Each structure stands twice: as structure tokens, then as C-alpha cells.
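Hi R.,

Here are the chain sequences for the assembly we discussed:
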Amino acid sequence: MISTRGRYALRLMIDLAMQDTDKYTPLKDISKRQGISEKYMEIIIKQLVKHKLIHGLRGKGGGYRLIRSTADYPVGEILEAVGEQLAPVSCLLPEAEPCDRESVCPTIAMWKKFDKLSHDFFYGITLADLAET
Amino acid sequence: MISTRGRYALRLMIDLAMQDTDKYTPLKDISKRQGISEKYMEIIIKQLVKHKLIHGLRGKGGGYRLIRSTADYPVGEILEAVGEQLAPVSCLLPEAEPCDRESVCPTIAMWKKFDKLSHDFFYGITLADLAET
DNA sequence: TACAAACCTATTAGAATAATATGTTTATGA
DNA sequence: TCATAAACATATTATTCTAATAGGTTTGTA
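And here is the predicted structure of the full complex:
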């Protein structure tokens, strides 16, 4: 299940998408609007910066800003940036070591099929779809 | 992500499906074949019994047996029986209290769509599909 | 140069996971 | 009939994850 970390990341990105994209929005404003602890938001937004989804500007008048146009942010990328796993089982994670039971595993085909389904679903929806209101 | 609990439950059910369905199979045999700790298996199989997916017979000569034909066991039901959540977010769980942000939530439609997708997927595959080898 | 903002590091309470350990009860079959 | 094999029951544990909180440092601007 997607935890609050992933859900907050989405709300954060949607909030940013609805601001004037020329300006930098302070985290304080976002957390106030969303009613989420600023300190916890910091942890989440840090990961979005690290993954080059948004840009942070320090100092007075600073804040955060989107880098791309909203249609170029797949939901899946946002979720994965903050550490949410889209794979249904651990053996399908990129960092997983090869499983020696794979050749006899009766369920691997099912998991792979669902993995593709999830991936296609969450990469087929973008921030533009969510923030169009 | 589906944890070992859910994956072991599936392996357990597939193992049972491949045994003679007239006889009772001791957990000891299953755990030996699957290479999984018998004691941990006990915890899992207890939940399958509680949810009426299998039947346990005590005493010498006892063990566990399927109740239905393999095509009548959707994978989703097996996973849910051992506590795996198919819903992508907690607010879509049956026991979730109504969310006051739902009317303004820009993501709820997406989660609901994915929830249906997952449900349809895992209830569209049965034990018969997995154990046909 | 004061201030506002991003950025950094550490700590914590609570819950879940994946087990292990030690029994008790029940029914069979030798 | 009674030892035995099996399900069933309850408790404990180490580890990891989650969702925060706390306090500090750096940077840029008005």
C-alpha cells in the first residue's frame, strides 16, 4: 500500500502545480495549505529535489518550483521518487538478487503481469491529469 | 507490496492443490516440501482455516485439505485471508472511516480506479490457473 | 545585516514483519 | 488403551518501517 509519504508527495506536487510556475513557493505555504507538518514535508520534498523533480531556491524569497511542464510528471515517478514500491513482490525490485526458485515458481508470471499493469497505470497518469481543477 | 505471509499462503494453497484431494496433508509435509519453517506456516494456515478456505483435521492421520475445487479459489481471496491489502491506499479499506477530504481530493478517483483494477486482476486468477502444472 | 528560506542530522514512539518457543487438545492406529 | 501424531493456542523477540519531532547550519536577498 502507498503510505502517507507517497500520498503527501502527490499532494505537494499537485499544490506546486497549481501555483504560479514562475515563482518559488516556500514549503511553509504548502504545508499550511495542505495541513501537513512542515518538518515532515521537508523529508519528503528533499527526495523530490534529489530526484530532480523540483528545484529549490535558498534564502529569502526562495522556495520550490516545478522544473517540467505538469504533463511530464508521471504519478509513478513521483511515488517512486519518495521510495514507494510499485512492484507487487520484492523479487521484482530492481535491486533484488536473482531468485533460484524462479524457474519453478508458479506465481512469478502473475506477479510480472501485475507489475506491468501497475507500472503502465501509474506512468499513464500525470500531474496534469490530477491538477487540472 | 505483498509480504512473505501472502506469498507463503499462496505456496501453501498451491501445494495443497497438487496433493490428493481426498486425503489430509500434514503441515509438516508441506513445510518440508516448500522449505519454510513449520512454526511460521502454522500462523499462516490458521488464518486460512479461520476464513474457511481449507479444513483441518486433528490427531494422527490428520492434516489439511481443500474444501472447494481449485477453480473456486481466487488468488485475491487467499491473499486477503492472511491480511494482505489489495487496496492501494488506506482510505479505501472496508474498515476506513469516511474521509472528510474526499470531496476535494484530486487523487481519489485514480486510487479507486486502481483499486478496481487490482481487485479484478487478483480475483480473476484462481488456484487452478497457478497449480495446473 | 537581519531574516527567511532551504538544507542537514539525529532521535523517537509505535506498528508491522518474520519468526521462534513452549505448550495444550484431539483423534487415530498399533 | 495409550503412545503418538497432528492441529490448535499463546507468548515472546529481533529487526525494520512509518510518521513524525527537534534542533541546528547554510545560503541568498531585501
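Residues 3-5, 37, 39-40, 43, 57-62 of chain B lie near DNA strand C (CB under 10 Å from a C1'). The mean pLDDT of chain B is 96.

Let me know if anything looks off.

Best,
T.
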